[in-house]
Amino acid sequence: MxxxxxxxxxxxxxxxxxxxxxxxxxxxASSTGGTSRGTEDHGLQALFxxxxxxxxxxxxxHIILDANPAAARYLTRHAGALRGVSVLEVDLLARLLTAGxxxxxxxxxxxxxxxxxSIGDSExxxxxxxxxxxxxxxxxxxxxxxxxxxxLHTQSALRAVEQLHDALFQALxxxxxxxxxxxERLLEISPLVERLFGYQPAAFxxxxxxxxxxxxPADRERVRAxxxxxxxxxxxxxxxxxxxxxxxxxLPHLVNRVVPVADERGFLDRCEGFIEDQRAQRxxxxxxxxxxxxLRHTLDSISSGVLVVRPGPRGVEVVLCNRxxxxxxxxxxxxxxxxxxxxxxEAAREIVxxxxxxxxxxxTSDETRDEIAELRxxxxxxxxxxxxxxxxxxxxxxxxxxVEDVTSSWLMHRRLTHxxxxxxxxxxxxxxxxxxxxxxxxxxxxxxxxxEQTPEGDPRREPLLEIVHAADRASRLTGALLTFSRSARFxxxxxxxxxxxEDSYQLLRSTLEPSVALELKLDPALPPMLGDxxxxxxxxxxxxxxxxxxxxxxxxxxxxxxxxxxxGVPDEAG
Length: 574
Fold this sequence. Notes:
This protein is α+β, with helices and mostly antiparallel strands. It folds into 5 domains: 4-153, Beta-Lactamase, CATH 3.30.450.20; 172-277, PAS domain (Beta-Lactamase), CATH 3.30.450.20; 308-405, Beta-Lactamase (2-Layer Sandwich); 408-487, Signal transduction histidine kinase, dimerisation/phosphotransfer (DHp) domain (Helix Hairpins, Orthogonal Bundle), CATH 1.10.287; 489-574, Heat Shock Protein 90, CATH 3.30.565. The chain contains 19 helices and 21 strands. A hairpin with a 5-residue loop joins strand 11 and strand 12. Helix 15 (407-453) runs antiparallel to helix 16 (461-485). The two termini are 107 Å apart. It comes from Eiseniibacteriota bacterium.
């Protein structure tokens, strides 16, 4: 390409000989000292009117005899205002003629004078033109001016383009090249070719075959066919291939990006492109895929469900959903990337928005929430933690939600709360039973005193016996309640289990419905056991409370004890 850029875009300058101007030409002086143009010189008149270049006629005193419209426009004066004026009074014209010494050279040289002149205009911009001065007889001189400023500007722009082109060649992180078409001759290649392939750029001019040797022999035929096919299409194309280093090392994962360039007639006269080494990119892609796979396996292995959502062009969409969340929400498989949240199952929408429909506001919110959510069918209690996902600039780009199943701990907490409540009620009942037992002591004391003072045949004795027996039963019941509600240190002592159950009978009877029968079937041969009588009584009461709600009206609750001999259990407890 350098040979084309180095070629100068020249112009063929027209030297107008005097005979071509239609001589002889007659000029006559006017009464005011001016001049007027005759009408018999049709050739000169046609030149004045038809040429697009400025043309002027001067006399031997350098007075302007005539000027065509193009000269008036070029010198920014009216044509009539130019006639009869000295060239030295027209600033631009005077500077042009002085810069090239045109008038002095016309006097000393009978041949046409031609020169290219460059000056600055009134605003300092470069101005370039070519002036031809031709003597046409009678002391007259014809000035023909061709404005070549456009050529100057074009050359300047071309140099700027060349500098930009060279800078791009040097700055591109790939091997840039230019090739002439249709001969497929390499014109230029960037210095990066030495770093990638081991060849210096200057080596390709005397050895054009090096261009083909940049491609691995196994890929050359395919690359050549794809190259010509791409040129035939006339559009930019890519060729992926394996390269060959100068020391015969393989260079995999190279891509040649080619751009065909057409001339003004639409024919391809060259193509440009660059060869990019994608080995580092491929390595990063492999590492990225491995990282994504590890992240996916990690997310699928943790005990918490993870869901990431973000606003999309069609609405809020799923970015990531792990297997654990699908299990928690009873889904067949995790939600796929790009799934619209509005099309996701209701449980997923509740996890993100808490049952609200303002998806967009929730997803772009910067608040952090840690709360409990309850799901139905089946009933589950989930702990939901939601936080914003921020981009590189710190702005909220999505939302991440982690979910843990806390149903078991939630149920245990409820049971603990209920147990604490029952403990408080037991303490309260114990206090009431203690006071009530004191009142019963008074009733029993006075009842026993009255009973002793009443003879056997007295009709009042039987009611008094009922009062004393009822007070005694009430006292035993409150005593059992006091014993059950009393908290004490665990003691391991010999205990008769049958006696513990018998002492708990009244307490158990009070917890059951009147229509439920309570039967005791206790083995009298039951040996003593080591334990705490109070804790055993609490165990019996808790067991009865567990089955109380399952007994229908008129049911029977039977408590029995017996001895079972099991293998491996010693005869005596140590």
